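Forum > Structural Biology > Help requests

Title: Can anyone predict the 3D structure of Helix-turn-helix transcriptional regulator?

Hi all, first post here. I have the sequence for Helix-turn-helix transcriptional regulator but no way to get a structure on my laptop. I'd be grateful if someone could post the structure tokens.
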Amino acid sequence: MGGMIRTVILSALGLSAAALALEWLEYQYVIRTLSTEFYIVILCIAFTALGLWAGHRLTARRQPAGFELNEAAMASLSITGKEHEVLQHLAAGQSNKEIARTMGVSP
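Reply #1:
Sure, ran it for you. Structure tokens for Helix-turn-helix transcriptional regulator below:
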């Protein structure tokens, strides 16, 4: 939660800095010599980059924890090693034919 708040604050500061920079440039000589469309494009690119960065930071996915085999549950359900192997292949999304081919048995 703290990381999200930090990212939102950094994003807001970035937007504020960009708006301040645009206001500052408005009074400079460069703003008078280049067309307004040029600055609009630069501002759009900057806001797009900032939005992409903030979106990436806010939606970062963490890797799930590794799977640990529950031997007690397997014993209580009377699941054999071969049955467990078949279940692993099913969980991986393999079809019956693919599982049979992998394990060297008939479907």
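The helical segments are 2-26, 29-33, 36-58, 71-77, 81-91, 96-103. The CA atoms of residues 33 and 85 lie 72 Å apart.
Shout if anything looks off.
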